TrEMBL record:
<dbReference type="Pfam" id="PF00534">
    <property type="entry name" value="Glycos_transf_1"/>
</dbReference>
<dbReference type="GO" id="GO:0016757">
    <property type="term" value="F:glycosyltransferase activity"/>
</dbReference>
<protein>
    <submittedName>
        <fullName>Glycosyltransferase involved in cell wall bisynthesis</fullName>
    </submittedName>
</protein>
<dbReference type="InterPro" id="IPR001296">
    <property type="entry name" value="Glyco_trans_1"/>
</dbReference>
<keyword id="KW-0808">Transferase</keyword>
<feature type="domain" description="Glycosyl transferase family 1">
    <location>
        <begin position="350"/>
        <end position="493"/>
    </location>
</feature>
Length: 551
């Protein structure tokens, strides 16, 4: 079989999971390739009868691990399906063709994409208004004497013979701000000498899989594929004991949040922290989940002042527990942004859009802006060039509209892996007409590249974009104000330079604040110092770069 090496690698990962979870029990693994007739993962006693579905197409056979079965202890039977690399690659391209979309969707968007966006906007506003009534905004209680009478035998004894490790939880392995910070956190932990275990919360495209550091101390554990959700907490508590894990860092991984009670009871010495990015309109998103679990966490790392206010107002979490760390490369602090290229009177303009083709980024709304600008440019002798970077569920709808509106000659579509810095270095303006944002990293990159970002006034965008370049969230106003702003930049002498001074000042102010690398590395290093086996690579607290906690 041509995928033998891949299958062997997956089987090795499965063995690690179940030998950790059931170290004293015989286990019989039954494996399928790509698809099985049974719902997997499935765990049952070996004495259960076998059925015909087990030998269906794709069955790879049985594999024994653990100690040999004994009379009266046959052990467990575990049924799992191994996804093929072809299946995983296909997840990134599951775009519904335009003709297969619901009729009402096509009718509304045929009249105007703005009508569809207006409907979504009204629904989101209503959900935002009802959010406090529909969702929990209170911290889960945790007794201050939770371990007062706990028998030491109840808590697992952690193996101190191994180098200290960190458990990092990711939402998935696809492109995103939280995942990007997660990858950086992995590298920062490795740089400090920690061993790193990574677990993933859910299936999805795996475009970031190849970007994980190739390091012998990095271990990716596929609990999302091979472990029932109900057993994740039990697995995590055993993993901590077995691998000398001293801290956990959660990047939007729900199963790791759900494991916190087991960690607190069995391993109260472990330091738990999380990082959050964006408050969702309908339910608060991961910051709300984080706030609910706040009593079980030692630190909340946030990327914006908006999030600091959210935790304080919604959950009354303040002080040293809240840690602000900007998503900036602190090694570039002394680097001056490139001059803005746009000037009044020029007859060409290059505009870029960077983002996933999902509702949050509103790609069809962005396309309506480009169409209106293109029409204005033809009437006023201004030539526009549009670069659109991204992939996702709306890509086919976007292509349909580009062809229908005859914009193929001025719009160029680029894949998710394109060289964004190179495109921004050639662009005059970047559009970000999102329905919601945390604090978009691409705005930092645009300003540094001499580009002017125009963004909706949502999330923490007012911390990086000047008031002059912020537009309303409401769709019709977003289109109108964005077009007016682009036209003003092209006509009003001195306006582009005014925007440049303001946005450069805001970028500099953010660069003067602690970076995510500084605050997270400091927490990692402080935790490492408290262990019995300090790492030779770990700096002392005095050697750490200056950081600050917001409180």
């Amino acid at each position: 079989m041509q995928d033998k090496d891949y299958i062997d690698q997956e089987v090795a990962g499965v063995r690690f999971i179940y030998e950790t979870l059931y170290p004293q029990e015989p286990i019989e693994l039954h494996l399928w390739w790509e698809k099985s007739k049974m719902a997997t993962p499935l765990i049952q006693r070996q004495e259960n009868p076998l059925n015909a579905d087990m030998l269906s197409q794709g069955y790879l056979g049985a594999h024994r691990i653990g100690p040999a079965p004994q009379p009266g202890q046959l052990g467990r039977r575990i049924c799992l399906t191994i996804p093929s690399p072809r299946q995983i690659r296909g997840r990134a391209h599951q775009n519904l063709p335009w003709a297969d979309r619901p009729l009402h969707y096509r009718l509304v968007n045929s009249l105007s994409p703005l009508l569809g966006e207006q409907g979504k906007y009204l629904v989101e506003r209503r959900r935002q208004r009802l959010r406090p009534k529909r969702h929990k905004f209170a911290r889960l209680p945790l007794s201050r004497t939770a371990n007062y009478l706990t028998d030491p035998a109840v808590a697992h004894t952690t193996s101190r013979k191994k180098t200290p490790a960190i458990l990092i939880g990711l939402h998935w392995l696809d492109v995103g701000g939280a995942e990007s910070l997660g990858l950086n956190s992995i590298q920062w932990a490795l740089d400090l000498g920690l061993r790193v275990f990574v677990m993933v919360g859910q299936h999805g495209p795996e475009r970031l899989r190849a970007k994980l550091p190739q390091h012998p101390d990095l271990h990716l554990i596929r609990t999302d594929r091979y472990l029932p959700p109900a057993l994740v907490g039990h697995f995590v508590e055993r993993l901590i004991a077995q691998e000398n894990i001293i801290l956990t860092h959660n990047h939007h991984c729900v199963p790791l949040y759900d494991a916190l009670p087991a960690i607190k009871l069995r391993h109260p010495h472990v330091v738990n922290l999380d990082s959050t990015h964006i408050v969702e309109h309908h339910d608060g998103g991961y910051p709300r989940i984080s706030g609910v679990w706040s009593n079980f966490l030692d630190y909340h790392h946030v990327i914006s002042n908006e999030l600091l206010a959210f935790y304080g107002e919604s959950f009354r979490v303040y002080g040293s527990k809240m840690v602000l760390g900007r998503l900036l490369d602190d090694r570039q602090r002394d680097k001056t942004p490139l001059p803005v290229r746009l000037s009044a009177g020029q007859n060409t303009c290059r505009i870029t859009f960077v983002g996933r083709m999902v509702h949050q980024k509103r790609p069809l709304l962005m396309l309506a802006i480009l169409r209106r600008l293109h029409k204005w440019g033809k009437a006023n002798n201004v030539s526009f060039h549009f670069d659109i970077v991204g992939e996702g569920a709306y890509l086919e709808a976007l292509r349909h509209k580009v062809a229908r509106w005859r914009l193929n000659d001025c719009i160029h579509l680029h894949g998710a892996g394109s060289d964004v810095p190179a495109l921004l270095a050639k662009s005059d303006i970047m559009l970000l007409p999102s329905s919601n944002e945390g604090l978009a990293l691409v705005c930092y990159e645009a300003i540094a590249a001499g580009c002017i970002p125009i963004s909706t006034d949502v999330g923490g965008q007012n911390e990086i974009c000047p008031a002059e370049t912020l537009v309303p969230w409401a769709p019709f106003k977003t289109v109108r104000e964005t077009c007016n702003l682009v036209i003003r930049l092209l006509r009003d002498k001195g306006f582009a330079q005014q925007v440049e001074r303001t946005q450069n000042a805001r970028l500099q102010a953010l660069q003067n604040e602690p970076s995510a690398r500084e605050v997270l590395s400091r927490i990692y290093a402080q935790t490492l110092q408290k262990t019995q086996i300090p790492s030779a690579k770990a700096p002392t607290v005095q050697q750490e770069e200056k950081t600050s906690c917001v409180g």
